[in-house]
Amino acid sequence: MAPYCDAQAQFIKSVRSSMDDNAKQFLQHQDWRNIQPKTARYGTASKRQLDASSFYVKSVACFVPHVVIPGHVPICPRCESSSKVDTHGTNVRWIKVPKTLFGLSSHRYLDTKFYWCGTCRKRFAGYDKWSMQLSAKVWLGYFPFNLSDRFAVDDELCSFIISCANDPTSTIHKKHEQMVTDKHYQDYQCYLYLVRIKRIRSRGTSTGHSDGQLRIDRIYEPGMAESASMRKLRLSRERLVCVRRKLQTEQTKLDSGLPFQRILDEKNNRNNLGARLPYLGVSKLRKLIDMGITTGNELLESDDPHIKWRLKQTLSNYFESVRASIADLKETEEECTTQMLLNEFAVENDPVAAEPAARERQQQPAAAELPPTFSKLDDSDGYNGKVLSWSQINAVLRTQFAHRKPMQDSKLRGLKATMLKIDFQYKLAKKTRVWKRQGESYRPFTCIVTVLNEHGLCVYWRALKSSESMKEIEDDLKKLD
Length: 481
Prior knowledge:
There is one protein chain. This protein is of the alpha+beta class. The chain folds into 3 domains: 6-196, no CATH class; 228-258 and 295-363; 415-480, no CATH class. 43% of the residues lie in helices and 12% in strands. It has helices at 6-26, 65-68, 129-134, 136-139, 155-163, 169-196, 228-256, 260-267, 282-290, 296-301, 309-348, 355-363, 390-414, 474-480, and strands at 60-62, 85-86, 93-94, 99-102, 107-111, 113-117, 122-125, 145-147, 151-154, 421-425, 434-437, 440-442, 447-452, 458-464. It has a 5-stranded mixed sheet. Strands 2, 3, 6 and 7 form a 4-stranded antiparallel sheet that branches. Strands 10-13-14 form a 3-stranded antiparallel sheet. Helix 8 runs antiparallel to helix 9. The chain starts with 5 loop residues before the first helix and ends with a helix. The relative contact order is 0.09.
């Protein structure tokens, strides 16, 4: 199931079909990083009627490497070659579900294709991280997204998170959540304006999800008066339908031959041990199935001397009761059919008693049709507002730190120091331990030592195993001298 509404799925499908038909012409007037849906919701001069679902459709970033940069063939991440990579053909297809691309105030969907490598005989995605790293010179400065295995972050949101790196993760999460909420409020205000100028389709003509299904409000109308003969006809038809369903159920029991596996599955729940055929317990059913007898008909036809006569008698009584029930239901069906035909004849000869009620309904003023209610922020079938979680924000910060650490280390090595100031900080509580596996844990460090020069710049830091130990850093201090 796709994690978005039907209107979003239709828009993604239309973008894919346009890219398949004529990608070059389609991208002449579109930015592949932000393909927006065509809607007249911001235009005041247009009189086009809109669905509420048009506010729930997010933009799409359609990344197809061989189309975005003509002549470029993506490199296979396994064999690290592009000589036998197919960019067209039956083996090349779109991914199943686009990746969520988070932004500052809203999210988009990052779509791409699966390419086929003839050497490895396997597919790989167009935004595969190792494949793009092999051709980094091509995409440097052109691909403004930061990729993860399950999501992606655009450059604006990534810059915002990095600039707030000194704030707690909870604070960053709340700020991002507030931005998404403000965007939802702005869209809601625009929706109310369009409702005021009567450009939103009413509930009676749309459910708000662009699926063509009418709302249940359509049947909330004054009912017609029902005469006695019409009521009898309606009740006789309902009775006939009920009898035919029961007859079909009993006939299915007889035709199936009473499969033992189905009874065994029911009796595995202790609440159903005596629900059907209490003489047949779980152990007996398993023994019969192991002997190759899987239905009640097979057991009645079997000549195995190990099968007790009481068991056959129980199953014979069961089938006899089913046959008797079928015979009774058939008689009841004939009676109900006859009664229904008589009631139909009576209705045809009876004058319709609903004319006064019809006149009253025509005289009543038509109720004003209301527009659909606007979706909530977190409704996956509606607005579907998404916010980066705490773990995802921490993942962005860890990745950025990993990228900057070599540069920071080189800067530390290049700093000169005449005077050294040593400070022991970030002391860890004694009971704080890291879980490794069941029954095994360890203490990552006791404290962290930092060494500053005369200008207050850090020239050395280290996590120590013992508290304020000069012996551990003695050799390193000599190297700094």
